[in-house]
Specification:
This is DUF3047 domain-containing protein. InterPro entries: DUF3047. The strands form two sheets. A seven-stranded mixed β-sheet has the order 1-4-11-6-7-9-8. Helix 1 (13-30) crosses helix 4. The chain has helices spanning 13-30, 41-45, 48-51, 153-166, 219-227; strands spanning 65-67, 76-82, 85-92, 98-106, 112-118, 139-145, 173-180, 188-190, 197-204, 212-218, 233-239, 250-254, 258-260. A hairpin with a 6-residue loop joins strand 8 (188-190) and strand 9. Helices cover 19% and strands 31% of the residues. The chain has a single domain (7-260), classed as Sandwich (Jelly Rolls), CATH 2.60.120. By secondary structure, the protein is α+β, with helices and mostly antiparallel strands. 40% of the residues are buried. It contains five helices and 13 strands.
Length: 264
């Protein structure tokens, strides 16, 4: 049987540090760290940006929420209009909060996710393969469900800890789309602390800075490339502009997100 309390307590020091390091990210993704001093969720959800976003919400009560990560400084997310489009403006000064929406899409054919970014400047100090520097100016985060019996012992322990702290287990899998300056498009970077989290570079370099960049991603194909098997379900999406590791200011604008079902 898996331990039901304090998974890190009975493991080695390395795993303890792994747990501590990953708690912040997973608490934010789990949706249990919302703080009343963050951005006004009502304003966010009533904005033209939110109304232009079309995703199959998990239930009628599901809405975008600004989620803090532990006690860290938060990034700011403000609905606005930018370069002719409704947008969510994200600015970060040593912060790493996110905005998140629970969704419900069954696999294995998860359809297309369309979204856009506008970025003026990248962060030359960031390195997504270095857990001490893994900031991203623009990040779209997808969460997936799946067969949790395939979890490793380490992931089971971490998931139990997350369940205790947040009321939700570790997501079965998390895939992050990023704009990076260092790694080429198509690079998949495993998270330093968990095999359940992968980062995929979908834009690289500065050639398209200062303009809207549009994406249409085949979510099933991207998941298959990152994790090596088909997805079971798509359960959540989040946006995140962070600078907590490198301490470099970061800003981006996110356009509305639109999901289209698979024609298969």
């Amino acid at each position: 049987m898996r331990p039901s309390t304090s998974p890190c307590k009975h493991h080695n020091a390395h795993f303890t540090q792994l747990c501590i390091g990953l708690i912040g990210l997973v608490i934010g993704l789990a949706g249990c760290a919302a703080r009343p001093d963050l951005a006004d969720d009502e304003v966010l959800n009533a904005s033209p940006w939110a109304k232009g976003t079309h995703l199959p919400a998990a239930d009628r009560a599901a809405r975008w929420r600004h989620q803090g990560i532990g006690s860290r400084p938060e990034s700011d997310y403000v609905p606005t209009r930018h370069a002719g489009r409704p947008a969510l403006a994200a600015t970060s000064s040593q912060g790493d909060s996110l905005v998140r929406l629970p969704v419900a899409i069954d696999g294995p054919h998860l359809g297309q996710l369309t979204f856009s970014w506008f970025v003026d400047r990248l962060n030359p100090q960031a390195d997504l393969a270095d857990r001490h520097k893994d900031d991203a100016v623009a990040r779209v985060i997808l969460q997936f469900g799946g067969d949790r019996s395939t979890f490793s012992g380490r992931d089971n322990m971490l998931s139990d800890l997350m369940q205790t702290l947040t009321g939700e287990p570790l997501p079965f899998a998390t895939l992050m789309y990023v704009w990076d300056h260092r790694y080429p498009v198509g690079t998949v970077i495993p998270h330093a602390r968990s095999t359940r989290i992968k980062t995929m570079v979908i834009e690289s370099g500065d050639a398209r800075l200062g303009r809207w960049v549009d994406f249409e991603r085949d979510v099933t194909a991207d998941y298959q490339q990152a994790f090596g098997h088909p997805p079971a379900s798509f359960q959540g999406v989040a946006l995140m502009t962070d600078s907590n590791n490198t301490k470099q200011p970061a800003s981006a604008w996110y356009g509305p997100l639109v999901w289209q079902p698979s024609i298969r």
